[in-house]
Amino acid sequence: TTNVSGRPGEVLEYCIRYTNIGSEAVTEVKVSDPIPFFAELEQDVYGGDKEIYWKPDSGTSQYLTREQDSDAGWESSGVVYVRVLAPGQGLQPGAGGLVCYRVKIR
Predict the structure, then answer these.
(1) What is the pLDDT of residue 28?
(2) Neighbours of 76 (CB within 10 A)
(3) What is the pLDDT of residues 31-74, one digit of tens each?
(4) Which terminus of the chain, N or C, has less C-beta within 10 A?
């Protein structure tokens, strides 16, 4: 969207759809999205200590932490990241998925 309105304390959810539109598999795919300057990443929104939702088209939903640990997601310096594939695996042509996270407006 190009226009979002909200008030302090309200929560917005950002979702990013990614797709390999090329004709060959790609490797080492990472989705990144800056958290808006007027907001902060909501904590524990997907149960437990999970702040990021990831759903590959060909897999099951995963709920990820904001910590750079053993799962595929993390937040650093105001940017949300999801490592879509481990190095050496390929995202096939036409394949993709969805990454979502929520922020609270300051």
Answers:
(1) 84
(2) 11
(3) 999 999 999 999 999 988 999 999 998 888 999 999 999 999 99
(4) N
Q: Give the CA dihedral 29, 85, 37, 16, nearest 10 degrees.
A: 80
Whether the CB-CB separation of 19 and 25 falls below 8 Å is answered with: no
Distance CA 41, CA 31 (A): 16
d(CA 72, CA 92): 19
Q: How confident is the model at residue 2 (pLDDT cuts 50, 70, 90)?
A: low
82-86, long-range: CB < 8 A, 24+ apart = 82/30, 82/31, 82/32, 82/52, 82/54, 83/29, 83/30, 84/18, 84/29, 84/30, 84/31, 84/54, 84/56, 85/27, 85/28, 85/29
- Eight-class DSSP state of 94: T
What is this structure's pTM?
0.89
Mean pLDDT of 71-99: 91
Strand (E) or helix (H) holding 16: strand 11-19
DSSP 8-state symbol, 35: P
